Amino acid sequence: MSENIHDVIVIGGAAVTEEFSPGFRASIFSYVMSILHLKVIRDVGKTAEQFARFSKADGAIYPQFDAWLNEAADIVRVLLLEAPVDPARQDWRSRKELFKMLWKHRKIGGKFYRLVDLMTMSADDFLSRWFEHSVTRAVLGYYFSIGTFASPKSPGSA
Hints:
The structure is a single chain. The chain has helices at residues 38-44, 47-52, 56-79, 92-104, 112-120, 123-130, 134-145, and strands at 17-21, 24-27. The chain is mostly helical. It folds into 2 domains: 1-44, no CATH class; 45-158, no CATH class. It contains 7 helices and 2 strands, in the order ββααααααα. Helix 6 (123-130) crosses helix 7. A hairpin with a 2-residue loop joins strand 1 and strand 2. The chain has a two-stranded antiparallel ribbon with strand order 1-2.
């Protein structure tokens, strides 16, 4: 009798590692994708208060930073379902598809530049725009590097 993976209860939550193919085990990435219940997030700690221990300004700005990142994530979630358009192609059909996509997502507007910043800036430069204390930047910089093993000063690490 074969087991249906959806019928198996796996204990471990965000820290669980599963065998996704015989002999291959990896994190199921819930910690990377922030798939945590809001109650768990609130119970884990009050991040802004902890950052304020090092810098009052960092504690005060953290909620805005979190909202900014969540808005950027919402944009990415929408765009992940789109077939990419090759902006280098100059034929009529490619341009038509590009304009069609731009029109469809026109409400993103200036928020699109958030993605440009996140995809091109180093984590250190990006976080320095928001936070003054090195401890705050180091804690957040760690999360930016998960899965990339890139230096926080590497372009594109944000």
